[in-house]
Amino acid sequence: MEANLGAILTAMVTPFGADGKLDEEAAVRLMHHLVEHGSDGLVVCGTTGEAAMLADDEHLRMIELAVSEMRGRGTIVAGVGSNDTRHAVWLTERATALGPDALLSVNPYYNRPSRRGIVRHYEEVARATDLPILLYNIPQRTGADLPNDLLAELAQIENIVGVKQANPANLAKVEGLRIYAGNDDLLADVLDLGEPGGILVASHIFGPEMRRMVDEPDRRREISGGLLDAFDDLAIAPLACSVKAALNLLGLNVGAPRLPYVELDEQETQTIRAMLERHGVLQAAQA
What we know:
The protein has 287 residues and is of the alpha/beta class. The chain contains 12 helices and 8 strands.
């Protein structure tokens, strides 16, 4: 099974209104902004989308919105991960019915199952869909790494076609899987491997530049190097929080994050503002 999802996939934040509820109008505006500014597609209800803080009905509504708004404009990858296999299967079945292009499924976090348990988990998830599945390896969040020999084993499961790789130590080709950068600073390395691209966060702000990393391979390292300070500054807080702060400063109002995430404090906000000014993004938005 092939999945041509594009190179620049933005792991989109989930906008909330002043009342704390899902802001569908802001979500639609942001979707269109992103595909008009470098993104080939969107990943909804992932970590940056605060999936852990979404009720199931909100989660599915975000997928539904993205599919209906982006049809023909950009690909949609729906996050369906859970550390409860039954819940992961339930989300997978319902997300599949909404018609995204692919699914993103993180390995079970917190409870840290054995290797055999991870394989069984993904077998059950894969049975629940006919869509391509991307694995998500982010040991700093899940507490467990998916080493490349395990990824190769999981690639034998029908429908599993790729991995969002957020562990730099594992960055290598894996038989049977396409590799997507799971960290912004890995995009150049992944592209140099001949792999498709990345599931990215800074592309909310620097989508055109990250797109150029795909289109201008001779300048890829130069462009990446020029963005490293921005990647570092965005990491001043959980990315959902810092990206929302940046978007709000740029006039793309997406509201505040949900607890236990909190809005940036004054000093953190100034760091983000200074980064946007340094890169000329804030001035361009205000022009």
